[in-house]
Specification:
- It is a single chain.
- Helix content is about 20%, strand content about 30%.
- The protein has about 210 residues and is of the alpha/beta class.
- The chain has a single domain, classed as 4-Layer Sandwich (Purple Acid Phosphatase, chain A, domain 2), CATH 3.60.21.
- The longest helix has 16 residues.
- The two termini are about 25 Å apart.
């Protein structure tokens, strides 16, 4: 079982999960951002050789998180798709949805979701800026702080540490905004300056590290 970290955001208990997800116990809701279904297919269609199986791998991780948390709803904060839909992605998502019929699923569309069809995907489409409790749910981080704590994605935040090789996905915790790491394992990252990462949480799929 992946390591978890319980903390409060806007006075509300939440749980960060090492495999790049956030769980909100009060709503029994699992939240992820930047799923980017079909990214590998898009690259291969463009003649770029990348490994197959990325979509199946990410959906298997997501299924494991739903089982771990017992979540009754799943919200995806943007970039459900990477580009155009295709038969492989549609079939993979349909199989995932059929296996989790008891989970209410919703998507806040992101900048990559021009081909997103909520009805075809069997999910609810939520507008940018949807509010529930003390949170505002978005894909894009807001330009300015508002009265609610924002949960969002889009940036794919990562951080490099001197004592650890490579760049690590990051829950970028700020006073009025939490940016979730990209859920897709096949994504780049936006480096967060060390001076802006105080109190944030690194995740590597197995462990979480809260920064001072």
């Amino acid at each position: 079982m992946a390591e978890t970290l319980e903390l409060e955001l806007a006075g509300e208990p939440v749980c960060l999960l090492a495999d790049r997800a956030l769980y909100w116990p009060a709503r029994r809701r699992l939240l992820i951002a930047d799923l980017h279904l079909g990214k590998g297919d898009t690259f291969r269609a463009a003649g770029i050789a990348v490994p197959t199986g990325g979509t199946a791998h990410d959906l298997a991780r997501l299924a494991a998180l739903l089982a771990q948390t017992g979540a009754r709803s799943l919200w995806i904060l943007g970039d459900f798709l990477h580009a155009r839909r295709n038969a492989v992605v549609d079939a993979a998502w349909r199989g995932f949805g059929n296996a989790h019929r008891s989970v209410a699923m919703a998507v806040v569309p992101g900048n990559h979701d021009r081909a997103f069809d909520a009805e075809a995907a069997g999910v609810e489409r939520l507008p940018e800026g949807t509010v529930d409790g003390p949170f505002e749910f978005r894909h894009l981080p807001p330009a300015h702080d508002g009265p609610l704590h924002v949960l969002c994605g889009h940036l794919h935040p990562v951080l490099s540490l001197p004592a650890a090789a490579g760049r690590h996905p990051l829950f970028w915790l700020r006073p009025a905004c939490t940016v979730l790491p990209a859920f897709s394992a096949f994504t780049g990252g936006h480096p967060i300056p060390r001076g802006d990462s105080h109190g944030s949480v690194l995740c590597d799929g197995r462990q979480l590290l809260r920064l001072p």
